[in-house]
Amino acid sequence: MTPEIQVRPSGAITSEPVIYPGRNGKAITAILDHAPGGDPSRFVVMAPKYGETKKNNLQLAYHLALNGINVLRFDYTNHVGESEGDMHAFTLPGAVGDIQASFDYLEHRRGVSQAGLVASSLAARMGIRAASLDARVSYLIALVGVVHVQRTLHTVYQEDVIKNHLAGKTWGVNDVLGFEIDFENFLAAAVSSRLHTLAGTCADLARIRVPVAMLAAQNDAWVDLADVERVIKWAPFGQLHAIQDAMHEVRENPQAAERTFRQLVRQCVSWAHDREFAESELAVPDKKSYVAQNKIERERLRRADTNRQNEFDFWSRYLSKYEFMAEVDVYNYYIKLVGELLGVFRPGELVFDAGCGNGLFGVWAIRHLLEQTQPSPDPPVAYVGADLTHDGLLNALQKHARAAGGAPGPAGAPAMGLAYAQMDLDAFGRPGGADDEPAVDFADNTFDKICCSLLLSYLKQPDRLVEQLHRVLRPGGRLVVSSMKPFCDLSEIYRRYAARAPTEKEIDSARGLLAAAGKIKVREEQGIYTFFPAEELAAMMAAAGFTRIEAHTSFGNQANVVCGIK
Ligand SMILES: C[S@@+](CC[C@H](N)C(=O)[O-])C[C@H]1O[C@@H](n2cnc3c(N)ncnc32)[C@H](O)[C@@H]1O
């Protein structure tokens, strides 16, 4: 039975930026969330996940603030976000120091001698260490906590990097989930502080004299539930809650996230007040308030990001990592779904692949046509691929030529006509300019089918492109658009792929994709990219004039696919 939930306006919550010194001398930027009437002595410190910023803790922080717990959520030094330092120099003990510096701030500047600590993923390991050292931590809640750093790194890299580091292997600067860090320094610091082993985690937990709750996801690709079960026994006041139907990124499943948030808030409020709270006593903030604050923080993050890569460079680099997708089952099912939603390919039809990347949809279309059609005198289907990057298009062209491989069409012509255009699809519909600026456009009613796969998220004006695609589609033509789900989690797809043990080269490009996913995530936090729920894609299509709109999920349940007819 779902308990009564009180949804309360949280417009009154104040989110105040604060700056304080880290233990390494670098400045930490944090946000303090508090509701009027909240007890000024009740605080929780929230440590972000690796590769994330305080903004990702905003929604949870507003749940807590509305229930009377003030929140201090900070960005690590030497990390992404607004605090000082270079990501190059990031280490786990450094992050432990940042957590403790946040307790220093509460003690010296706010007169708060004890506070709770909430830490997710890798931050949980640092949280366990901080709680074992610092008596000011009054309780610890670890969400999808990494408890065996060596094993998690092994799963992510498909290589026991700690063992190889100890045996003398060097990497230099390495991309760790999308961020270039000094890997030797990172590994050496983890090992010398004993943050890497399961035994180290058990020893830390055994020293914690306050309550510890671990919320562990049932389907976590990075954290072995058996490890969590093993370590929690060492905490004198420890408890474990398994989150059903959840992956490492719990928000990937909104129902699981909602349940987890409620449980976490209830736990914090109960421990802060030293009595059990029923769910019906808790309030849930209305979405409007944290959406507005989200916007403010997105702007701050964007301003803080001084070394942002431009789109062209980003995609040119990323696409080379994307190659291995052709080997991933769930991606191939996804591309097949996109093709099938576009309907039967008839002779002479014109197909537009907007944001074609490496041309994987085109490869599917060519193979599909070759399977379907016999040599015939009919005109072939013609394909036009468009993308921002030259490298992507060149790669698509080569792949398509190989796939079409001299296949017979009318009088020996290929089964599919192929053409490519390098263009910025954010400018699609722009007529040629006075200064010889070329037009970025096609005529009205040109195409029979348009595939717009995993592109809209990366545009400045996605809704505008959908309108333009409606214009260039013939009446009765079909458009398929897609987006990764908000908070999508690619870890399981990666783990399954790596478990099939393909070659070292393929695993390497899969690691590259995880790295790119990390970068894309930060760009999403900054509001540069947006992953759309199916309803938003459908609304964009409806606003542009499409009818018979249908929505599907695909790509291992990580992407939304929506189709409509002009
Ligand atoms: C995630 S990839 C998807 C590639 C392909 N459609 C697929 O589904 O496999 C995103 C693609 O969008 C392209 N892209 C991003 N911004 C673009 C823009 N403004 N104009 C044209 N293409 C863009 C990138 O170059 C990249 O090829």
What does the model show?
The structure is a single chain. The protein has 2 domains: 6-147 and 195-304, Alpha/Beta hydrolase fold, catalytic domain (Rossmann fold), CATH 3.40.50; 312-565, Rossmann fold (3-Layer(aba) Sandwich), CATH 3.40.50.150. The protein contains 18 helices and 19 strands. It has helices at residues 58-66, 92-110, 122-133, 149-157, 161-166, 183-192, 198-207, 225-232, 254-273, 287-304, 311-322, 329-341, 360-372, 390-404, 462-472, 491-499, 504-525, 534-544; strands at 6-8, 14-21, 27-34, 43-47, 70-74, 115-120, 137-143, 173-176, 179-182, 212-217, 238-243, 283-285, 350-354, 381-387, 416-422, 447-452, 473-484, 547-554, 559-565. Helix 2 (92-110) packs across helix 3 (122-133), helix 12 (329-341) packs across helix 13 and helix 13 packs parallel to helix 14. The protein is globular, with a radius of gyration of 26 Å. Residues 407-412 have low confidence and may be disordered. The structure holds S-adenosylmethionine. Residues 311, 315, 319, 355-357, 360, 387-389, 392, 424-426, 453-455, 458-459 line the site of S-adenosylmethionine (SAM).
